[in-house]
Structures are given as structure tokens and as C-alpha cells.
Design goal:
Length: about 250
């Protein structure tokens, strides 16, 4: 209990110090005050965005392509990583392709997202899914590679040597912690990619931030940044709770 209270106190103190430093930067003129929002003006800006009716629709629109991109990237990344790590010939076949495609950032695919899907949720979801895919691919691939080979030998001695039986009885339980950690990292990556995805014009928090920045309303930009942070914190808490339920079998 004391440890939790201490962590809350220190965490709160860190946030307060950050806000005071932020305020000091503007007050002492270390940067142009016209481009630095006043932290104490952010609550009023939040209420203004709320009353304008733009905040909630923007959050809802972002969540549509966020969840589609997150789901698609997660499923594809886990499936591809699992296949590459367990099927020798498939691993050889895709090895050079991974090296070619991996360094390309999701933002670079915005051009093709517009060409293929136009300015739609599908285009934004496509860009988000690329960033999520690689995180889950490498998390799954690495988790499979670190499975103790003696477990497979044991499975074969008990008649569980076929691919699907081995995958179900050994591989999937063994990679669960690593794969779930990859999914959690992907949840955060998807939010970071979301803003870039909305640069193609799909309605959402990124587009509202871009519009606010265009007219110099930096307080509103901070409101949408904090909205992203809040939604991420809620989704991360829910995922951690689910992860504990799934991994309850672990000692």
C-alpha cells in the first residue's frame, strides 16, 4: 500500500513539475509565446472544444480506423510471424522481403493509401495497420524462436509431433506472454501512427489538430493531444486487465 501511495505521489509530483516548467518556459520568453500554449489556458480550451461539438465526433471518427487498423495489423503480424518462425521454407521465402519492407515507415504509405482507398477510414486503417503489423510480427517471431526445443522433443515423444498439434499444445501457450506484450506495444504504436494516417484528410483528432494549428490555435492542439493520451490510457488499462486474465495460469 505504501509503495503504491509513494508511486502515486511521485508520479503526481512529476506531472506538476512538468506543468510548472512548461509555464516557466512561456513566462520567461524562452520560446515564442505565440507558439507555446499556456498550460493554465488548456482547461478553458477543452471546454471550448467540447461546447463546439467537434471533440467527441473527432474521437469517435479516430476510433473507427484505429480499431480496424489495430485489429488487422495485429492479426496479420501474429499470423505472419508465427508462420515464418515455424515453417522453415516460408521463413526463407520471406526473409529478404522483410528486410526490404521493414525500414519503410508507415507515413510513406500514405501516398498509396490515398491512391488505393481514397480519403476513407479504410485508407487510414491501412496506414495504422502497417506500423502495428511489424511490432506483432517481430514479437511473435522472437517469442517462437525462444521456445525451449526440449518441449518439442517431449511433445513428439507423447505423439504431439504434428504441426497443428504442436502449435496448439506447445507453441501458442509458450509464446503467449511475448505475443501479448507485442499486442500491447501495438496498441500504443497505433495511436502514434493515427495522426500520420489522418494527414490524408480522414476526419479525426489528427485532422482537428492540423486545422487548429493552421489558425494558430495551439491550445486546441494540446486539447486533442491530451485526448489521445486519455483514450490510450483507458485502452491500455483495459488491455492490461485482460492480459492478466489470459495469463492467470502462469505462476
Amino acid at each position: 500500500m505504501k509503495t503504491r501511495l509513494r508511486s502515486v505521489l511521485y508520479g503526481t509530483a512529476g506531472v506538476v513539475l512538468f506543468v510548472l516548467l512548461w509555464k516557466a518556459v512561456g513566462a520567461f520568453g524562452w520560446v515564442n509565446p505565440e507558439t507555446l500554449p499556456d498550460p493554465f489556458a488548456v482547461p478553458a480550451a477543452f471546454m471550448a472544444e467540447w461546447r463546439s461539438g467537434r471533440l467527441l465526433p473527432a474521437v469517435g471518427s479516430s476510433l473507427i480506423h484505429y480499431f480496424w487498423g489495430l485489429g488487422l495489423g495485429t492479426l496479420m503480424g501474429i499470423a505472419w510471424g508465427l508462420a515464418a518462425a515455424t515453417l522453415y521454407r516460408f521463413d526463407l521465402l520471406q526473409a529478404y522481403l522483410v528486410r526490404i519492407l521493414r525500414p519503410i515507415p508507415p507515413l510513406a504509405w500514405v501516398v498509396f493509401a490515398i491512391a488505393w482507398f481514397k480519403v476513407t477510414h479504410a485508407g487510414a486503417a491501412f496506414v495504422i495497420s502497417i506500423g502495428v503489423f511489424w511490432i506483432n510480427y517481430f514479437a511473435t517471431y522472437g517469442a517462437v524462436r525462444h521456445i525451449d526445443p526440449r518441449l518439442y522433443e517431449l511433445a513428439r515423444s507423447f505423439g504431439q509431433g504434428r504441426y497443428w498439434r504442436r502449435a496448439w499444445s506447445i507453441t501458442l501457450p509458450a509464446i503467449a506472454p511475448g505475443a501479448l506484450a507485442g499486442i500491447r506495444a501495438g496498441i500504443g504504436q497505433a495511436w502514434m501512427t493515427l495522426i500520420a494516417a489522418e494527414l490524408l484528410g480522414v476526419p479525426g483528432m489528427g485532422q482537428e489538430m492540423n486545422a487548429a494549428a493552421g489558425v494558430g490555435d495551439y491550445n486546441a492542439v494540446v486539447v486533442y493531444m491530451l485526448a489521445i493520451s486519455l483514450v490510450y490510457a483507458i485502452s491500455d488499462l483495459i488491455y492490461v486487465w485482460l492480459e492478466k486474465k489470459v495469463l492467470a495460469w502462469r505462476p
